[in-house]
Design goal:
Shape: globular
Distance between the termini: 47 Å
Number of strands: 18
Largest sheet: 4 strands, antiparallel
Strand content: 35-45%
Structural class: mainly beta
Length: 203
Amino acid sequence: DSANAALLCSVPTGIHQTNISQWGLDPGNYQFYVDAIGLPCIRDHLSTPATQLPSPWLNQDIGNVGVGGSATYTNGTFTVSGSGADIWGSSDSFQFVYQPWNGDGQIVVRVLSISNTASVAKAGLMFRETLDSGSAQGDLFVSPTDGVSMQNRTVANGSTSNVRTLNGISAPCWLSLIRLGNYLYSYESADDVNWTPVGPNIC
């Protein structure tokens, strides 16, 4: 209710991840806060609320990421934090926010920002066959400095190919990935009105 906070757990200083399902909360919408407490040099500080991902959205680290990732949803915005080597080669390692999908469909997102942890850091959209690190997949991403790219891995544990890159584009930007049958179509836009194809259709 944004007024009566209940303590769920207490952890020492450091980087941690935890699964909120272990606390047996009843189904519903919750707000979660992190309270930083340390004396004498750190004043108490309560974070802004982070809510559970709305159903049917889920999140999971794919592959060996090192430090576990996380995802929250607040006021219509997903905030995704993750680590990992890359989404490339014969296997991927990243934080994935996803939902089960069957048949045709379209995903549209506005990437508001992306941290420049590396020039090839990625934020965007993906259709993925499985949650295995080497799964076949097709994706559309914006990077901090290398524009918008479409790439794909057509078979499990195969190599990843860069379909096409549009340089000079950075966040904030709109991305759209469409699945029709066995084909993926990708588009980017600055205003959600005028859309530009990113790459040739891939299957």
